[in-house]
Amino acid sequence: MRNDDLYSPTWTPDRCPNRNCRFFNRFQKGWSWRHYGYYQRRAEPRRLRRFRCNACGVTFSPQTFSTTYWLRRPDIYLQLPTRITSGACKSQIAFDMGVAPSTIQRQIDRLGRHCILFHAKMMEKRPRLADIAIDGFVTFEHSQYHPFHFHLAVDRATSFMPYFTDSEVRRSGRMTAHQKRRRAELERIRGRPDPRAVRKDVRELLEYVTRGQDEMTIHSDDHGAYRWAIEGLGCDVRHVVTSSQDIRDRLNDLFEINLSDLLTRHWLCEHKRETIAYAKRRNCSAYRMAIALVQRNYVKPRRARGEKATPAQLLGLCQERLTVEELLARRLFVDEVDLPPRWARYYWGEVDTRALRINRRHELRYAR
Ligand SMILES: [Zn+2]
What we know:
Elements: E1 33-40, E2 47-53, E3 59-60, H1 74-84, H2 90-97, H3 101-123, E4 131-140, E5 147-155, E6 164-168, H4 177-190, H5 197-210, E7 215-220, H6 224-230, E8 236-241, H7 255-267, H8 282-299, H9 311-314, H10 324-327, H11 341-347
Parallel strand pairs: 4-7, 7-8
Antiparallel strand pairs: 1-2, 2-3, 4-5, 5-6
Helix pairs in contact: 1-3, 2-3, 3-8, 5-6
The structure holds zinc ion.
The site of zinc ion has 8 residues, from loops.
């Protein structure tokens, strides 16, 4: 489905876009609307028909159902998914396209939220996952004093990534005396991350991935938190531990998750070593991770050379490889998707960066 058919003169709505209207639910019978003139806009097509809901009186147009709703530059939005995953940072993209970095930031946030809804909606089909690998992906937000992990899972048979969560962790590893003092100072001012965060957040990842499954094999490295997180899950689990010292080649049981880590660092500039484009806020990093996950699962072939089907096709979630136009064909409304708790927090911008005094939330105003 492309965005174009929204703009065809014969297009008609199948539901009311007002979330407080009972006809917001597209399956509710008996809805009626009427034509309500036209409106002019700056982007093409310039003239669009308007409609009015006979039940609640709200007026709307085809654009209300588009992912580019309320954007002055919809052309940028359609190019963003591939640009973000080709290793460019926000300012480079902004310079390239002749707009302000803040415009790109706003559109990345919106795209991230769309990808969160898109993937969560696809997961409502409950694909069968039997053999997964998990790992913690280490990166940082704001400064190297604030490292965090993304906990990733991948289906070993198809490379499909079902979910991720994140944990704030304390800075560790080799530090100079000055860095140790600075860490103590910052921890005094900003507080310390929960030492059990990794356990809890891996647990949350696994609860989502194993729901509705009878049995599952989970591969991981020898990190102590995994054993705790796996215990007592609602399905029969076989836990296979591979030492992190083992050679990381194709024959390694963790090959698929190692590859996902590698691709993530390759695609998203903020996770490259020694970068100046590091994430300023963990919540935004989660948006970009969701954008990468959606491309990995639905848009890009499983292997650059070899398997041409996407992970979602191999898993039976999609018939075809999705194009970016199809991914962005329709706006998704947050009320119609069953979001898992962590992703709901990402969606609303509720994951706080402790180094920032103000963490802005997402508010539903003009769907931004
Ligand atoms: Zn209505």
